Every structure is written in structure tokens, then in C-alpha cells.
Amino acid sequence: MTILVKKSSFLQIISIILALSFTITAKTARKSTDHDFSYFESPFESPSKHAFKSRNHSSSNLEQKKSLVPIFGTECRVWSRECSEEILRIAKKPENVKWIKSVRRKIHENPELAFEEHETSEVIRKELDELEISYRFPLAKTGIRAMVGTGKPPFVAIRADMDALPIQEAVEWEHKSKNAGKMHACGHDAHVAMLVGAARILKARENHLKIKCSTVVENPISERQGPLSGQFGTVILLFQPAEEAGNGAKRMIKEGALEDVEAIFAMHISHLLPTAVIGSRSGPLLAGCGFFKVVIMGLDGNPHHSGDPILAASAAVISLQGIVSRESNPLDSQVVSVTFLNSGEDDLDVKPKRVEFGGTLRAFSNTSFHLLLKRIEEVIIAQAKVYKCSATVDFFKNSDTIYPPMINDDRMYRHVRNSAVDLVGPTNFRVVQPLMGAEDFSFYSEVIPAAFFYIGIKNETLGSVHSPHSPRFMIDENALPVGAAAHAAIAERYLNEREINISIDGLRRE
Ligand SMILES: [Zn+2]
Ligand SMILES: [Zn+2]
């Protein structure tokens, strides 16, 4: 009870201080009405009255960095919409827009498949070197773990995938893929560009990640030692290979990508949302995905006693359809689909020795997913037995083709939503429906709280309306600066608000 009284009085002090800080920040910041999101609507490349000199290779790094520092200064001790506006303002500077597009185009022209992203990785490292951002390389063969901030906890991560697909690009444009049969048809080139863009913004605002806790909570207690003193906050930027192949995330985790990281966020382009509109949802977002391959054999090789693998396989395929339609909750979407069946022989008058078939399964919860795995195996083995055959079911567990469902942590989702609404306005944030697609970001979400969100690239005038993995897939590049700003705002705001929580925790422990 005493502790409770103490806590509440501390919280009162903090509330007053936060309110005061907010008032001061609001007074010094640029005048802005609550519903004025005109910055979002304005053309991304319109000349700004604060435009800085175009990038000159002969100018020093220092000069370039100075030009990245925001002109309007809000200290962002307590997060406000002005902080988001400032981040977006940096992202939308004409030089930065030009640069982020050029990074994306360079990667688009040179698509590399899973674990072959050597040149993509080199492009990223070159940009990080220029920004003087430190990183660890390699992780998972071509992956990079970059770091902006104090190098001290708390650590928050933002992630982009780097790999392309074995698809021949059918879009004719200046920066079309130069690698025959390979294409960035899932927008991972844009993901990389937006994360590098976020790195640039965060570096320009690195001082915001270095605020001492004692300056946040300005009261006599701040003089004490312990969790209130010292510098806090690091953003980890993960450039991950092999999302499409399915084991990039797993390998990144195994090689230390999430060391000390307490929360992680990732963004994917969406052809269903208009350009630069951000969308997400709490809970299940993308399905867990797996594959299975079955071999059914006659039992003892004796033609008089052995079963008929064709009949057994046919019965098994029919019975598999009953798992979802008869056993699962119709409100809990699941899929079991057989996609191939082969006896390997074309004799019309001989019973084959073996039959193979296989397919895919999808579910939106770990429980349903694991239940599906169990029931698929049970049904196949039992049906084989009915027809005097034996069966083996392989779920390719060793080759990492099972993706868990992507379930957004509610707290992390709300953080994304709040950050996005501040950045692009409430009308440009959408709660989206879950999709049956899968994404290996779910491996991270199994380890730490995570949220996955979308950024729209749909522009009917441009023709960027095709779904990912289509050879006609293309994006509206005007989403890129907003995506970079979203990454940066989400990461910086996470640390900003976490810092206050740490302070409060510290006070509670006193
Ligand atoms: Zn894809
Ligand atoms: Zn993708």
C-alpha cells in the first residue's frame, strides 16, 4: 500500500512535468492544426523553400550531414506530432527523395536470389559507410546488422528483406531488371531503400537517441544514480537475405540478429493500399504456411497381399479435405490443399508400387497450424493402413519451409498505428484484413514482440496495381520517403517512450 501511494505521487510529478514539457514543445514548434495533414497530400518532389544544396561528391561528409539536420528543432523529449512531422520533412527533402529512389532503382536493376544478395549487400554497406553508421557483416551470408544510437539498451529493431524472385520482368521501363529470369517482384528492393532511408534519417537525428533519462524526468530524483542516469537507446537495422526461400530470418536470428533486441518492426509494400497509405492490424495478419510430401507404398511387395497405393492415395486426398471442412472452426480460416499426385509409371495394366502426392497448409494461429500438421499425418497414415499400404509424411522441417503465422503483438501494433497516424494522418491509416500469404518475419515474432505493417504502392494512373510475384509488378516510388519516415518514426518513438517507461520503472524501484 505504501508503495502504491509512493508510485502515484511520483506518477503525478511525472505527469505534470510531461505536461509542462509538452506545452513548451508545442509553443516552440511550428504552428500546426490537429487536422492539417496537407504535408501528406503535397507533391513529394515539390521544391521546398528550405531545400538544401544538391549532393555534391566533392563536398565533405560533414557538410552533407549538416544539411540533413532538421531546420526546425523540436527536442522531442516528449514525443509529439511535431517530431513525426520533422522526420517526414527530412524524408521529403528533394535531395533525399532523389537519393532514395536511386538506391531502389540500382537494386531493382540487379535482382539477386536468396543468399546470393552479394551486390545488394554491398550497395547497402556503401551507403552505411557514407553515413558513418557501424554494422556487423556478414550475418546469414549476405545479411547486415547496422546500429544507430548509443549502443546501449533498450534496443529496437527494424528489418528489410533483400532477395528477388526467379521471375522474368515484363514491365518495360528505364530501370528494368538486367538479370534475365530474375526480378524484384515482391518489392524487397523498395524495402531495402526505405530502411537505408530510415538509417539516414535516424543518423541525422542520432542526438535524439542520446537523451539522458535524467533530462527526461526533471526532478530532484534525477540526481540519484542507477537507472535514471546514463544514455539509452539503440536502433538496430536488419538487412535480411532469403525471405522468399524461407530461412533467411531463422538464420539471421541464429547468428545474433536479435541480440539484446526487445521489439522489432517490419514493413511490406501493398498493391491493395493507395500510395503511402499505411495499414496493419492487431493479432493474426498473415498465415502460417507449410508444405507436405507423402509417399504411399504397398505393404510387403507380394502382389496378392499388398495394398493398392493408388486407392490409398485417392482415399487420403479425399479425407484430407474433411479436416478443414469438418473439424475446424469456420471462423478460424485454414487451408489444406493437395497440389500434385504422381505414381511415376504409365502402365495401364499394372498396379504401381508407390504413389507420391503433396501440397500446402495454412492457418492463422499456432494452435490451428500445429493441429493441422498432426491431423494431416494421422489421416494419411490411417487411410494408407485401411488399404493395406504404408505411408510416410514429410513436412520438410529440416529445410525450414514451415513459416509460423504472423501474429502482431497488440502493444506493438498500437505503437505502429499511433506512429503512422501522427505521420500520415488518420485517414491514411487503415486496419487491414488478414491474408493467406506467409512471411518469414514471423520467426522474429516468435522470439520478441513484433509488428508487421504495409505501405501502399497502388497508383492506377501509373499502373502499379499488380500483385506481388506478378511479372508485371511495379510500385509507385512516391511511397519510398514516407516508408523511410515510418520506419524512423516508429523506431525513434519506441525508444523515446520506452525511455520514459524505464525512468518510471526506475522510480518504482527506488
Ligand atoms: Zn514475396
Ligand atoms: Zn515479400
Question: Would you mind describing this structure in some detail?
Answer:
Keywords: Hydrolase, Signal. This protein has 510 residues and is α/β, with parallel strands linked by helices. The protein has two domains: 81-285 and 405-504, 3-Layer(aba) Sandwich (Aminopeptidase); 288-394, Alpha-Beta Plaits (2-Layer Sandwich). 39% of the residues lie in helices and 19% in strands. The protein has 14 helices and 14 strands. It has helices at 2-28, 38-41, 61-68, 81-91, 94-109, 118-130, 188-204, 213-216, 248-254, 309-327, 366-386, 410-424, 442-445, 479-509, and strands spanning 134-139, 143-149, 155-161, 234-240, 261-274, 278-280, 283-286, 288-298, 334-342, 354-363, 389-394, 406-408, 429-431, 450-458. It has an eight-stranded mixed sheet with strand order 1-2-4-3-5-14-6-13, with helices on both faces. A hairpin with a 3-residue loop joins strand 1 and strand 2 (143-149). The protein is elongated and about 85 Å long. One zinc ion is lined by residues 186, 188, 243, 268, 468.
Rounded to the nearest angstrom, the radius of gyration is: 26 Å
CATH class of the largest domain: Alpha Beta
The CATH architecture of the largest domain comes to: 3-Layer(aba) Sandwich
Q: How do the strands line up in the largest sheet?
A: 1-2-4-3-5-14-6-13
Helix/strand-derived class?
alpha/beta
Give the number of DSSP strands. Answer: 14
Taking the alpha carbons of the first and last residues, their distance comes to 15 Å
For the residues shown, what is the average pLDDT?
A: 83
Number of domains: 2
Helix content: 25-40%
- Taken from the alpha-carbon principal axes, the silhouette is elongated
What is the ordering of alpha helices and beta strands? HHHHHHEEEHHEHEEEEHEEHEEHEHEH
Family: Belongs to the peptidase M20 family.
Pfam families: Peptidase_M20
Protein name: IAA-amino acid hydrolase ILR1-like 6
Keywords: Hydrolase, Signal
